[in-house]
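Subject — a protein and its fold

Tokens — whole-number codes for backbone shape
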Amino acid sequence: MERALRAHLAEGSFEDTPPQRSKAMQSVRGKENRTTEQCLRLGLVRAGVRGWTVRPSGYAGSPDFFFAARRLAVFVDGCFWHGCPRCGHLPRTNGEFWKAKIERNRKRDKRTCVQLKKQGIDVVRFWEHELQNELAKCVARIRVTSGKGLRSLFP
């Protein structure tokens, strides 16, 4: 665990965290999550959208999806881990730690967007709740954003 975040824990450890909470947090997947990446992937496939790769290496922030021909990076952010203003929340246990952790994630997301834009890469980000509630709109937004030069990739 990062030293900077350890300072926000009571006595610098998770020892006060109930075992069931630790188990639940450990079970959260960092990639190929059903409510984020798999959801958008399914939407892209069903809509016949082609020309993307999943988590390509060599790009800042490791985009979840990348359209190389259009230079478009797509990120799908979990509402909890990235601090969604609509439905994100902080756990009561170790609240200061989680506040600092999520704030660091948000700052990292902003830095990643800036780095990619400096490289001439467009960036689109979706919240978990957007994918769950408005998947068709998310796919449409990718179509509009990547429309220049990719017409042949979309039916």
